[in-house]
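W.,

You were right to be curious about this one. When I first looked at the sequence I had no strong expectations either way, so I just let the prediction run and decided to look at it fresh. Below is the sequence, 360 residues in total, followed by the output.
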Amino acid sequence: MFLQPNYLKALEASSPSNISWYYVGIFKSDLLVGVAVLQRVELYLEDIFRNYKDSCYKQKLKQFVSKFIRGNMLVVGNLMHTGQHGIHFETDKITQTEFLDGVAHAVEDLKTLIYKEERKRIWILMFKDYFMDDSIHEEREFLESLGLHKIVVQPNMILEVKPHWNDINHYLADLNTKYRQRYKTARKKSGNLVKRELNAEDLQEQSDRLYELYKNVSDNARINTFILPKGHFLSLKLQLEDRFRVFGYYLDDTLIGFYTLILNTNSLETYFLGYDEANQYYNQLYLNMLYDMLNFAITHQFSTIVYARTAMEIKSSVGATPAKMKVYLKHTNPWMNRFLEQIFSFMNPKQIWEERHPFK
């Protein structure tokens, strides 16, 4: 799904202003045997740190740290979606080592091209999002030759939909009493909301409001690398049609929240969401979104729900479990590369959270 032309066209048409797209083809005897998506990301202070609630001291400290990482970054993968969705190769026609070597050569060519055309240097290289059992971790010689650091990032929260869940009641029957009551309480608090799916015309009409709600959530993130432009969701809807779904929550005819889904074969991928903070707590809006995503997956017979990163504890309370992921990162300045792990750890500190176990 994430390497299909219509998805990539949608992202290019509504890409964040600081992201440029490149595509690599790996050939063997004139036969295309592998592809990779690369993104050039121009990191700016105003994009990296947007949590304006931080104290003055924290703001100053973040401004200092950002000096070491701002600039141009080259990502092998898709920074706009959790997971490794940027590479594919034919394992019966080329080895993983051959494929990675080809990608590495393309990276070097691209760095040279960018400097030649724009006088911009690539300071950071990232191979993004690999599960712990991915075979790339066995490519030690390749990884060491590039000087890449292996860094653990926030886990991807994934819920396996059980085969006997024919409707939401079967899911509820598997919950223990505490979490079944929590579900009922959340549903009761959302009783005065009207939920409906938004079509392309709705997305066009509500473009400003969707952007406002998205920014409410995005600006509270610890670290950001981009800002979605207005019209992003409409672009995806026009290209993906029924494989991209948007659901809105209304209170007194005012849109106060929304979430988006990408239908990826047997996997339901959660995408960006937004809500009005004033109504989030009273209506338990975020928790109800998680339940509604789950209900959609059960009704449409998906096998997994990818809840992605952030808010791990509340996602685990509905049944999602953490799948650890790693990225490979390098700063092209050797001195800076020595301290990259520490800088990354400061900017993306380990979160202490308690995994919930809602099932009997």
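Here's what jumped out at me. The mean pLDDT is 91. And, maybe more interesting for your project: The CA atoms of residues 24 and 103 lie 7 Å apart.

Coffee later to discuss?

I.
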